[in-house]
Amino acid sequence: MAGRRCWSFLLQPPYLQTVVKKTDLNYTFCLITLLLFLAIFGFSIFSDGMFFDGIFYAAVANNYAHHIGTFWAMQYSPAFPQGFHDQPPLAIFLQAICFRLFGDSIYVERFYCFGFALLNMYLIKKTWALIADKYHDLFWLPVLIWIITPLTAWTFQNNLMEVTMSAFDLLAIYFVIKGSKNNSLLLLLLGGLFTFLAGFTKGFQGLFPIAAPFIYWIIYRHTDFKKWLIQFAAVLLIPVLAITLLYINPASHLSLKLYFEHRLTGTFHHLGDTTTSHFFLLYKLVLYLLIPVGLIFIVRFLTRNNNSENVMDRKPIYFFILIGLSASLPLMVTLEQRVFYLTTSIPYFAIALALIALPSIEHFIMKMSNINRKVINKVLITFILILIILIPLNSSKPKREGDLIADLSVIKKTIPENTAVSIPSVLNDHWAYHAYFMRYCRISLDDKHRQKYFISEREMNAPADSCYQNMSLPLKKFKLYECKNY
């Protein structure tokens, strides 16, 4: 009996639990959702190799976990002692706690991202329950749309700031909705708290829930203007107080000042432009939503005789579309537009699309009510268990930078941690090298001083200093030299 309860927990975990019964077709769709989540997120998150930004953040967090740098002046590498001020410190601090608790394994940041993916799904489910009424047991639908939107998995597999920020923003929106519905200032204050935490993760991009009380009031007109103003003030209170306190404190003031100067000022002065069009992200947003929108059109076509959509309440749809737009449209103010910035808006578009699809999905489920669910469920559970076995076996295969990662495993056995290594000056701008060497080996690359070891790419000439001798290690991408007279 205990064994059955254990398997039930694994196959219907907290982030997918509801009143769904195993005999219900919704249970089958929960299993499909879990299967797709493991297939899309599991392999991509736990495979080795990440986008530069993700390795960069993991290196900074790991450094902080080893007391390199301070909370207000994180450090990327001893070769760059000026400190890291490209982002506020909260997400890196949270990941550093994980490194202190669980060690230096590369799977620490992988489980961090996987855990936040589960948390995002759970929060989408909780938010859905606030507005879906009798359809609360179809929570798998917005979760499924979120999963199959390609940008989502890519962001979570690469340890980007949006991994953490999206959870705080979802919590903020959840409490704003619940607080607005119940006219609860306490819940609205919690919404403000999580809005600040999202901003403390990645700056202004995370502060869009401040607009949620206004959007809710515009759509629902649930109270008079005076009460709405009090609700809005409640959401705004904690972010304003927290930012004021940070401004007063000298250490945090300096850190945030440097963040504004290095990051925001450069953005508005076109130092980090990635596109020539302000509508680049709008185009990408439409492109990424094509898959779920296409599937919804297919389901609507298959259930085209369904007329129940005529009585559907469209207010929640408008609300979540506007929330999604409040999270994405402000990103288009500058020309520094990276597609993963849109990740935080995807949950709200997923909920809106799920609401649009509800009548058709309900009719589709009714048409499938006579299928043999027991057989399908057993097949799905079998595939889920196979994936749980395959994901760890596949994790050692890098999805990118395979040669670099292979070389690092050799170099790590040769050069002690916390060592500085000389490099040619032409490699100093290869920021991915700095990030990977710090994260995998805790080795800093130095182009200004002679160190005991010297690393260059294979096709480069030998170092000018005659003291260096090639160590002839089985490396694919680099050559490692040692100075015998050091």
Termini, distance in Å? 67 Å
Strand order of the largest sheet: 5-7-6
- Give me the Rg, rounded: 25 Å
**What is the strand content?**
5-15%
- Structural domains: how many: 2
Q: Class by helix and strand content?
A: mainly alpha
**SSE order, one letter for each helix or strand:** HHHEEHHHHHHHHHHHHHHHEHEEEE
> What's the mean pLDDT score?
88
The global form is globular
Roughly what percent helix? 55-70%
Largest sheet: 3 strands, antiparallel
Number of E-type strands: 7
Q: What's the tally of helices?
A: 19
Quaternary: single chain
Q: What does this entry look like structurally?
A:
The chain is mostly helical and 486 residues long. The radius of gyration is 25 Å and the shape is globular. The strands form 3 sheets. The protein has a 3-stranded antiparallel beta sheet with strand order 5-7-6, with helices on one face. Strands 1-2 form a two-stranded antiparallel ribbon. The protein has 19 helices and 7 strands. The protein has 2 domains: 2-390, no CATH class; 402-483, no CATH class. The termini are far apart. The longest helix has 25 residues, at 107-131. It is 61% helix and 5% strand.
